[in-house]
Amino acid sequence: AGTVFLRAELLGAIAQLPLTPSPCRLAPALSPALAGYMLTVSSFGWPLVVCGGLKVLYDATLLNMLQSVKPPEEEVTSADITK
């Protein structure tokens, strides 16, 4: 009917569980808590301001990193020069 686990098997399975939560599971829980705290401190809407600032910083970083990369359509080849 049911499965019987030996105590050693159960303890071995528990020992293999991760002790710290992964960042992928922690971030979705942390973000609303932080936004809720900011809204309790002030009704100004700080979560929107902070997220907008982070988005601008992210976009500027991507622009800086990829500014020198040209798409394949814009690259000049030796065949284009001889035309």
Structure description:
- With 83 residues, the protein is mostly helical.
- It has helices at residues 7-15, 23-41, 46-66, 78-82.
- The protein is flat, with a radius of gyration of 26 Å.
- The mean pLDDT is 78.
Helix proportion of residues, in percent? 55-70%
Q: How does the overall form come out from the CA principal axes? A: flat
**Multimeric state of these chains?**
single chain
Residue stretches low in confidence (pLDDT < 50, at least 5 long) are none
Largest sheet: none
Order of H and E elements = HHHH
Q: How many beta strands in the DSSP annotation?
A: 0
Distance between the termini: 80 Å
What proportion strand?
Answer: under 5%
Mean pLDDT: 78
Class from helix and strand fractions: mainly alpha
Tally of separate helices: 4
Output the radius of gyration.
26 Å
Q: Could you provide a short overview of the structure?
A:
This protein has helices at 7-15, 23-41, 46-66, 78-82. It is an all-alpha fold and 83 residues long. The radius of gyration is 26 Å and the shape is flat.
Keywords summarizing the entry:
83 residues, mainly alpha, 4 helices
Question: Could you give the topology of this structure?
Answer:
Blueprint: H1 7-15, H2 23-41, H3 46-66, H4 78-82
